[in-house]
Design a protein that fits this description.
Elements: H1 2-9, H2 54-65, H3 70-82, H4 86-99, H5 104-116, H6 120-134, H7 138-146, H8 148-160, H9 167-172, H10 186-201, E1 207-218, E2 239-250, E3 253-254, E4 258-271, E5 280-295, E6 298-313, E7 316-332, E8 337-349, H11 356-359, E9 363-375, E10 381-393, E11 402-414, E12 419-431, E13 443-455, E14 460-473, E15 480-492
Antiparallel strand pairs: 1-2, 1-15, 2-4, 3-4, 4-5, 5-6, 6-7, 7-8, 8-9, 9-10, 10-11, 11-12, 12-13, 13-14, 14-15
Helix pairs in contact: 1-10, 2-3, 3-4, 3-5, 4-5, 5-6, 6-8, 7-8
Length: about 500
């Protein structure tokens, strides 16, 4: 009986929980030491870029907000190098060098910029030091891939010097990341409902499919599935974007009460041309093992899932992540059901920042939560759901370590046979106990969202969506928000 109820009712809870979270690296550019000139804290003015460059505006705002943050200066220099402003990039990077002269990221940038300026001796000096301090680092690997002949030559120089491997430096040269869909556990519960719906609709099918397409206005297009950072107020990183999000599962092996098989998920966006550097491609393969049983008039669905995520902006790797999730869904005969999960993920970013001990997002993050779905039996409100979850992120960078607690809830309002309104809200608190700056960056997080959905058929739905996220912090460098709105089309089977 509970299966039939689930098939009939769970469809009301389908939402896409797939939307993006902010980028850590922008642009591409590097630098060499400037002799005889004192670096300034003010960001260099725009030169030769025309009227519009929202990425430059964003990076200049970051160095204005955090003038003692070496990585902000380095990222600005990278973008200036990419746009051909080599002299300006050299002056900008000089500030990063002053703040973090031994940073692997800064050494790599120095070498690349020196090559573009036609100074191979200075480039060799920077790259040799990079190989000495972090020969297995992401930056050393990038150098070997981009300049294989020079890398082979300079590796020989380092070997000839009999430089021993620097284990501590190599350890700092790893990169990091996070989950983003929503900033709480509500998306995990929605995914469990979606899986149950697909199975209940066609229990004999081995293939489960969910595809969502749409057009959105996104006030922060620098959001990726492995990142957790929002733009600062006043920074123009908003654009219209096309997006596609496929989600497929295939039961490769299936028994009477269990199944296992591969997962193929993804997310992709195409932004307006001035922000094409943030065109996202996210690959999310994995596999699952699921078992079902009935106990005390309740259907219990246990699931173990492994997933790998690789995110790229405009073809360049941002980060990757390995994750394991254990979950249990209990569908009761009275129409209520409960979802609980535990998840552990380890992430690595391509860019550790100029000072990994404070800037790196590499490392594990663990989360657990529970969501209760309740029949409401009102004329307009069909069902409600409430949930709580906690998260612990142990990043290598002290400024990004946090503990979080989130509360979230929502409702399904059935307007008529085809139209539904699905409002949601959430509030949470993040404690950054190891943050090295002042004032504190502890944050209160808010989320409000709504979806007006029209069911064209049992498989196809059209929706108007709007959503706002707010990270409220007394530290202005981290006080941020994001707004999205648009039209989505979904297909499930």
């Amino acid at each position: 009986m509970s299966r039939k109820w689930f098939s009939k009712r769970a469809k009301s809870y389908l939402e896409g929980g797939v939307l993006l979270v902010v980028c850590l690296g922008v642009g591409t550019g590097q630098t060499e030491v400037v002799r005889g000139e004192e670096p300034r804290d003010e960001p260099p003015a725009k030169q030769g870029l025309g009227a519009e460059d929202p990425i430059l505006d964003y990076l200049q705002e970051q160095v204005s907000r955090r003038p003692e943050h070496a990585d902000s200066w380095r990222l600005l220099a990278r973008h200036q190098r990419k746009t051909g402003q080599l002299q300006v990039a050299r002056k900008t990077l000089a500030r990063a060098i002053t703040l973090a002269p031994a940073s692997l990221a800064v050494l790599y940038e120095r070498g690349e910029l020196a090559l573009l300026e036609g100074d191979p001796a200075a480039a060799d000096k920077a790259f040799v030091e990079l190989l000495r301090q972090g020969r297995e680092s992401e930056y050393a690997e990038r150098f070997r891939n981009r300049h294989p002949a020079a890398a082979a030559r300079l590796s020989g120089v380092v070997t000839a010097e009999r430089t021993a491997p620097l284990e501590e430096s190599e350890e700092q040269a790893l990169p990091a990341s996070y989950e983003i869909q929503t900033f709480d556990g509500s998306a995990d519960a929605e995914e469990a409902v979606r899986r149950g719906l697909r199975e209940a609709a066609d229990p004999l099918s081995r293939l489960r499919v969910f595809l969502e397409l749409g057009v959105l206005y996104n006030s922060n297009v620098s959001l990726a599935p492995t990142s957790r950072d929002l733009r600062q107020p006043g920074t123009e990183l908003g654009a219209f974007q096309l997006f596609a999000s496929p989600d497929l599962e295939w039961e490769l092996l299936r028994g009477a009460s269990w199944s296992l098989g591969p997962i193929a998920r993804g997310y992709g966006t195409i932004n307006e041309s001035n922000l094409s550097a943030f065109d996202l491609t996210s690959y999310q393969p994995g596999f699952f093992l699921e078992r079902q049983t009935v106990w005390r008039e309740t259907d219990w669905i246990g699931r173990a899932e492994y997933g790998y995520t690789l995110d790229l902006f405009d073809g360049d790797r941002i980060a990757d992540r390995h994750g394991v999730t254990l979950s249990m869904t209990a569908i009761r005969s009275n129409g209520n059901f409960l979802y609980g999960f535990w998840s552990s993920r380890f992430s690595q970013f391509a860019d550790d920042g100029a000072t990994p001990e404070t800037d790196s997002l590499d490392g594990p993050a663990h989360s657990a939560g529970v969501t209760q779905f309740l029949a409401w039996d009102r004329r307009w409100v069909e069902r409600i759901h409430v949930g709580i979850d906690g998260e612990f992120a142990e990043t290598e960078g002290a400024d990004f370590r946090y503990d979080a607690l989130n509360l979230h809830g929502g409702a399904t309002c059935r307007l008529n046979r085809r139209w539904s309104l699905l409002p949601e809200a959430g509030v949470g608190y993040r404690s950054y106990a190891d943050f090295t700056g002042t004032p504190s960056r502890n944050e209160v997080t808010w989320r409000v969202a709504s979806r007006l959905r029209w069911d064209w058929s049992d498989q196809i739905a059209l929706a108007l969506v709007v959503r706002h996220d707010r990270f409220a912090s007394q530290n202005e460098a981290f006080d941020a928000e994001r707004t999205e709105g648009g039209v989505t089309l979904s297909y499930s089977r």
